[in-house]
Amino acid sequence: MSAEILDKACQGDRNAFSALVAAHYDFIHAVAWRWCGSESDAEDIAQDVCIRLGKAIRSFKGQSAFRTWLYTLTLNAVRDHQRQSSRRRRDQDRLANDPIFFSHLEPEEDDRGDWLWAAVRRLPEKQRDAVLLVHSEGLSHAAAAGILDCSENTVSWHLHEARKRLKDLLKKEAV
């Protein structure tokens, strides 16, 4: 990759940016894969890095080698992805272990994970969105309220209603 392509990309030239991404995509993907060990996660991270690169390229000042700067950008994306995945798993486990939903099941009947998320997807739209934003995405009630364009109390109410509905669904499934 030439310095000219890098300079043009930094100045906003779309063709140069495309050439820059093409020249470095394999590097980005390989770094992501080495750090996360998953092909699908590495692909997601590489795509995220390309988006971040598009937003950050104008801030590259050449104080370090481009590849070093790109390596830092990629590692930050890997760390963000790992934090999000960890938060998502924790929230899914917390929801899947909520006794409100599963207190009526015998231990041998306890098939929580996939069923619960399938049931969440069957909820009315606002309840489903509140559950997914808070329990799957790990957002606060305030952040979810901002996205849903409602008050925090409304988010809490949707979550309460979703719990009741999911509990009823679980009881019906157990019969």
UniProtKB/TrEMBL annotation:
Pfam family, one: Sigma70_r2
Protein's organism: Neorhizobium galegae bv. orientalis str. HAMBI 540
UniProt domain RNA polymerase sigma factor 70 region 4 type: residue ranges: 115-166
Bilayer-crossing regions: none
Keyword presence, Methyltransferase: no
Protein's recorded name: RNA polymerase sigma factor AlgU
Entry-linked SUPFAM superfamilies: Sigma2 domain of RNA polymerase sigma factors (SSF88946), Sigma3 and sigma4 domains of RNA polymerase sigma factors (SSF88659)
Domain of life, source organism: Bacteria
Keyword line: Sigma factor, Transcription, Transcription regulation
Any one GO molecular function term: DNA binding
